[in-house]
Amino acid sequence: MATYVNNLRLKEIATGDESGTWGTSTNTNLELIGEALGIGTEAITTNADTHATTVADGSSDAGRAFYLKYTGTLDSACTITIGPNTMKRVQIIENATSGSQNIIISQGSGANVTIGNGEVAVVQLDGAGSGAAVLDVFTDLAVTDTLSINGTTLTIGDATAEDTKIVFDGNAQDFYIGLDDSADDLVIGLGSAVGTTPAISVDENQFVTMPKKVTASTSANISQVAITSSSNATAWDARAAANAYYVTSENTTISAPSNAVEGAIISIEIAQGGTARTVAWNTVFEFAASTAPTVTATASKTDIFSFRYNGAVWQEIGRVQNLAQT
Does a structural domain hold residue 48? Predict the structure, then answer.
């Protein structure tokens, strides 16, 4: 009696069977081997949450193909169980469904592999029976030479709460570029563990932190940012407008800068318009002899003041007054 207990579900003819028809069965097996080396397409019932692909014994079946494409329209993730659960093989599976849903490839109660919409995965069916697992073949893939990616996007991570990184494995030192997921920071650092000895950190507000010395071969350029006054008060964000420019429009008081960080250095150019205005200072600004300066009260003249924050007050570290504007 013929059996089909092999990984391609081909007919295995029992000794002495099929006298005179052995050639027909053999030719069918050869055709099915060709099918197994090819491409198959299988449609999932519309909006199904589960789907079964059971490779037929000794007859043509799309599920036998080495490259298996699933189509159909889904409104939720669909779990696809490939059987029989004793079949051991590798397959390339494409999620070509409509509806922007995942497909989940399973074989038994063991592990499974999720394939995103429009994505392709290479999977291993371990054929362990009721507890069979599906594994991602490319997990922990090692490439010993050049790897080229011809597409436009390389995605690292699967949107779960975990750090992701690229590690540069050097002879004496390792470096990494990674996402510190808990802090939502992009980090470049020394070593291989994200968050260890960071050199540059960029947070979700695109603020950059560099904890070590920075050496520049050209002069620094801190963009000038205009600030304005309202109701006789001039708000100043020390982070967003470290190099501030203010054209007087009313008598005003320079307010305590927001986002103050110990050690920060900021400056402000106060430019009088066609009508000179008075400018006073919040008490958080500390001047020599604790005496606030008198801002030049002449139309079309400019004063420039610089400050350093010591964690409590903004200490004046520079002052130039009565400058022409042109």
Answer: yes
Whether residue 9 is contained in a domain is answered as: no
Beta carbons within 10 angstroms of residue 121's beta carbon? 19
Per-residue tens of pLDDT for the chain, all 326 residues: 899 999 999 999 998 898 888 899 999 999 999 999 999 999 999 999 999 999 999 999 999 999 999 999 999 999 999 999 999 999 999 999 999 999 999 999 999 999 999 999 999 999 999 999 999 999 999 888 898 988 898 888 878 888 999 999 999 999 999 999 989 999 999 999 998 899 999 999 898 999 988 888 898 889 999 999 999 999 999 999 999 999 999 999 999 999 999 999 999 999 999 999 999 999 999 999 999 999 999 999 999 999 999 999 999 999 999 999 98
Looking at the structure of the chain, the number of domains it has is 3
**Residue-range definition of the domain harbouring residue 253:** 224-324
Short-list 279, 292, 265, CA closest to 234: 279
Residue 142 covered by a domain: no
Residue 300 lies in a domain: yes
- Both 273 and 297 in one domain: the answer is yes
**What 8-state DSSP symbol labels residue 299?**
T
